[in-house]
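step: validate -> pass
step: tokenize input -> pass
step: predict -> running
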Amino acid sequence: MPIKLPTTLPAFDVLKREGVMVMGADVADKQDIRPLRIGLLNLMPKKIQTETQFARLIGATPLQVELSLIRMTDHETRNTAAEHMEEFYRPFADVAATGEKFDGLIITGAPIEHLPFEAVTYWPELQQVFDWTQTHVHSTFGVCWGGMAMINHFHGVAKHILPHKAFGCFRHRVLEPASPYLRGFSDDFVIPVSRWTEMRQPEIDAVPGLATLIGSDQAGPCLVEDRARRALYIFNHFEYDSDTLKQEYDRDIGNGTPINVPMNYYPDNDPSRPPQNRWRSHAHLLYGNWVSEMYLTTPFDMAEIGQRSTDWRI
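step: predict -> pass
step: emit ->
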């Protein structure tokens, strides 16, 4: 089954050309099926690129998915056209006011990791979002800074500034092979990493109920399950396109920002050669498993989301 997107959203044509099954509302509304409703709270500056990356992953399952784009209420983006934001995004305040519920919510990262959480201008509203997920979202997926912010809000786990940016494709390993989110995973694989901060494994281990599913000797904990909160926190970037790290590297070089060549990314570490994507299959596995688990455990009656779960593991 396809992912339901507005036909005028840039991701619609991009994904259609890639062979991802997409459909507009006129076709989707004729199907006698309840689609999974997934929201994307997009905190990244390049909104269109991020929309496409996540729509590609959650739209590759046999289930029909309806994607809703959400933004912070009062935060103005400078990197995406106002017309795009007006046409495709709803402010969180409007979403919350309707009382609508979602099977899933993805909260992206944001390039503000150097700031303390409480110094972020929209931090109070983002805390409202986190609390709202507990009554209006069945399963939440916090990504990079978004995941760090969630785990800090709910459990007080601190983020720590790194002496150098963790930048490149780092080898990771499965720590909980029985997890349903890791079905089909190899024991060892690479994930793109791009961050100036980290969360430390001993501090995560000190919180009852948190389980680290994926970790790296070089990059530290990566994917953490918070079963009681019905949440996953991932600190790295399975969703990245093949050239996303290249774009970041070229940007920093162009700005004169000191930056190392992303590790284990370019063939022979040569930035003049095209990078190779070695994480795509595991990206689809992870997000496909997340969508499948959501489908298996979310209540059919959306009014019961946040009140009742069919998850036999809880």
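step: describe -> The CA atoms of residues 76 and 88 lie 15 Å apart.
step: cleanup -> pass
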